Each structure stands twice: as structure tokens, then as C-alpha cells.
Fold:
Amino acid sequence: MTNEQRVKTLFTEANPIPDVDSFAVDEIGGTAYLATLEQWRSEMTQLDTRSIEKKKPQRGRLVLVLGAAAAAILVGGVIALTGDQTGDTSASAAQPATVTSEVIRASEVLLGRTPSSMEATIQADALLTVDRSAYDSNLPERFDIVLYADVYMTSSPDLVTRVVGLPGETIEGRDGSVYVNGRLLDEPYLKNPDIPHPPFGPIMLGADELWLMGQLETVCTAEPSPSHCCEGRSQTSPILEPRSAACN
Amino acid sequence: MTADDAFFVQLYESYYRQVYVYCRRRASADRVDDAVAETFLVGWKKIDEVPRSSDALPWLFAVAYRVLAHQWRGMSRRRRFEARLASLGASGPDQPEDFIVMRHESRQVLDAAGRLKSTDREILRLSLWEELSHSDIAVVLDINSDAVRQRLSRALQNLTREFDRLESRPTYAPAAERGGAW
Structure:
């Protein structure tokens, strides 16, 4: 068997639901479902049309631009993150890493526009290049700027963020600073060093975990809340159980 | 019941299960019900555009794919909330517990798939998980069958390459040996 055939077989076997027919699905039946839709429609028509427009603008657009959506999906990260920038920006920080994947060094291949979580270092609209092979022969080092992808999500945007803690280290947010193994971490890259980090931890990283942090100082000045940044716990290999992340 | 209504009922009853499983293969359980409902809502609203043939299922897959992608945009905010819940000791959102029991190689191949472009990943899933024919995949992706063949072959090559790379990755030395190297 060639390597390609082997990988093909493995991928086929990795199907989370191999047997459609025996998978338990809660069905209410077509007629009943149609009745609920009809009922929904009659309720909707009784309301002011304009309020419906306001209520479901996204869905309407989704339906109308299915063609265009295909292109948008390819740059899903851009869409989601631009959206976030107008609102609660802290949401676009490094994802609390419940499921994680490879960490990839930003340096070689054209990727896309960056999210805002690294705004002090990378302009929000800057184009980044990513070297997807950088970690084939080297390991992520502290302060590497990496692309973080949540591989099990259909189209979650990849995030540009920074490696702060390495496997086996203990990371703690205390007195507004970050401590690695009890030593104060010098973070010269922060745009507004006066804004304190939220407290978290101490957290001992596993043998295959990294601690990733975005920078959101610019966001925080606009939004004087504790949501300075979100820390994500990442691993260099797939995890076996969901891990919580410090996220204020 | 109008002809359209009857067609919708037939569509729903014939394909609900497939659409549900399609979504479940790509998203966690707590998102699937919404995604399936949304997909059929689109089908209901656009009943005139649903192909009156065996292309109806790939048409629904195409809608579901976009619905799932769209869903994600609202999620980053939600996940932050969920992470906070998790840190309070509640069990977190549904996560791929399925992966726990997976063999190392299966997880590795999914990781490799995670490094592909989303279009590569999707075409592999459509072919190997949904077991769609090339012509059905062509309907989902809105490309022609020749392009499907080419893309599929390229996606498999890419997957193999990423898989091989993952297998030859280095690993960290124990923290004690690294010492205070920073």
C-alpha cells in the first residue's frame, strides 16, 4: 500500500460518524417541521416588517449571497475579525484553547490579514506570511509569533498570537504581570505596558502544551475593562480532554 | 398542502439524517441542531431553487457548509463565556470526546487535515466521509467534475505530505534539561 493510500484509509477511518443509518438522530418528521415553519411565518407576518429585517439581517444576507459566501469562507478569519473590531474586540483574542493544533511560525507563505490581537506588533490590515514548515525541524520558542488553528472547527479563523510559555513551565498572571516559573517576564513588545495583565494561574503546562497570549492593549484603552487579553492553552499535539483557559 | 410543501416534506424526510450527520461530522453537538434547522430553513425559503433531482442532497450540503461557517462568526464571543464557565468547574461545551478513544494515527491524520486549506479538507470529507460521487461533489462546490478529480487528488497529496511531516516532528526535552534558557 502506498503512503497516500494509507493516509486515505486513515482519514476515512477517522470519520467521527462512519455509519449514517445507525446514528441516533432526533427527527420530528417533515410534516410537523413544515407546520412549525408555517407557524413561524404567520407569526412573523403579524409583526412589523422592518423589525423582522432588523432582527435577522445576517440570515437574510446569508441566503442571498450564497455564491459570494464561498469566497468569503476562504478568508473566514478576516470576516469574523473585522466584525469583531467594531464591537467587543477582546473576543477576537487568542481563543481559549479547548482543542488545539499545530503552531505555525509566521514568516514565509502568504496567508491573510491578521486579527487584532497582535495589533501593537502587526497592523490589523497587514498581510502576513506563514512558514508552514518552520516547526517541522524546530520547536516553537518563547516569543515566536505563531498562527494558531483550531483544527476541528469547520472554518474558524486562524489566530496570530505569541508563544509565552513552553512545555513544563509554570505560568502565572500576578500583579499585572506575567511570571514564568516565578520569574517576571519581560515583555518589550507590549504597546501599552502600563495596562496590567489580568490575574490567572499559576498553571503548570503539560509536556506538550504551550501557553499562547495575544496583545490587546489598544483594545483595552478603548474599553477599560479587565478584558486585557485572553490566554489560550495550546498543545503541540492533539489533546485528549478539554482544558479550561484563563480568560477574563 | 401545495406542491412545494409536499416537496419540502419529502426533502426533509429523505435527507434530514444525512444533513444532520454532515453537520455533526464538522461541528460539536451543541451547534448541530441549529445548523440543521437553519439549513432546512434556507431550503424552505428557497424551495424554488432546490434541485428536483438527486442533486438536492449536495445542494443541502452546500447550504449546510455555509451555515456552519457563518455560525462560527458568532462563536468567538460565546466561547469566551464558555471558557469562563469551564473555569468555574462546570463541564465545558461539547468537545470532540470522540477523539479521546481515537487511535494515535487517526488523531494525527485529523491534525494533518487541520493544516490543509479548508477547501482541501472539505473535498476530502465529502469524498471519504459523505462518500459522494465526483458529480455530487461538483454540485456542492459549484465546480465541474474534472476540477473535482484534480482537486481531490491534490488534496490527498497535500494530506499525505502534512501527515508525513507530523510523523517526523521533533519533541521537547524535559523542562529540567532545558534549564533557564531564556
User: Anything to note?
Assistant: The mean pLDDT of chain A is 56.
